[in-house]
Specification:
The protein is built from ten helices and twelve strands. By secondary structure, it is of the alpha/beta class. The chain has two domains: 139 residues, Nucleotidyltransferase, domain 5, CATH 3.30.420; 167 residues, 2-Layer Sandwich (Nucleotidyltransferase, domain 5). The structure holds zinc ion.
Length: 335
Amino acid sequence: MGKGYLLGIDIGNTKLAFGLVGCNERRFHEKRVVPTERELGAEQAIEKVLDNTRELLATAPGEVAGIGIAFGGFVDATRRIGLSSPNFPGLDNVPMAALIEDLAPGIPVLMENDANAAGVGEVVYGKGRGHRQVLYLTISTGIGGAAIFDGVPLAGTQGLAAEFGHMIVAPNGPGCTCGSRGCLESLVSGTSIGRIARERAELHDTMMTGLAGGIDNITAKTVSIAARQGDGLAREILEEVALNLGIGLANIIAAFDPDIVILGGGVMNSADLLLPPAIEFVKGHLTPRGVKVPPIEASSVHDDIALWGAIALAGKAAVNHSSSCCLVDLVGVGR
Ligand SMILES: [Zn+2]
């Protein structure tokens, strides 16, 4: 058999990313990123996915053994349909895998939501390698989560398992994007950190106002920069964020007893400020009853993790299809 390739497709709200990787390799043979251009509508975005996929398939120097899709929204992974995307109205009930299979008959296709895909990506290409029970959280605009057991994302009855962002951390806390109150996301996401900082900056002196050029421009990034420069309010805010993150982590570790917890997303640019106090909290609450706290680590794969996840799914699709060329070390496959 000639050298095989895996094709990953990451369908996000702002960008569409495509990556072609040699089986068993860990760097891109070719990578392409194009804007999603939501304003042009769902049909145009789908056409763009299909056009780029067609072009990449044509450039592969060898056989493409599998294709994986990470979809930024709700996914029925069994039927391989993108059900809806909260930030992309109209992108509903898209049979993405079937559309890709029409382009590439005979190549197996797997599809997951982007958080599950990223979790699988961590298991194959990131810090989850060699671990059978991996919890993954991505903390950026919102919070996504995945529980990957033996390489397989836990789906739940409705495909909504491991939505760690919407566990309740403070019942009377701020309103959440989901309509509830006090979810982890409403206290710890990048959007929430920015909102909390703007509210507090109205009441207290802080260098954040000057750094951002006005209270309205303060974001999570401003908080991080100001905290590093010793701003008292910024430090206080990050201490609270770390505490709430610690509560969330203690809860999911108590529920799942994982080998490792991996955290990704833009907020983890402040991992050095947030993780040590969050881990202290977790230890303080879990060790008294004899729980060994697993490693809790920031992801080592940064911007492209959902795309690497799609590529990992492509590897799983190939292995499930008994293609012999791919990813023999993929956790849980072939056991
Ligand atoms: Zn929520």
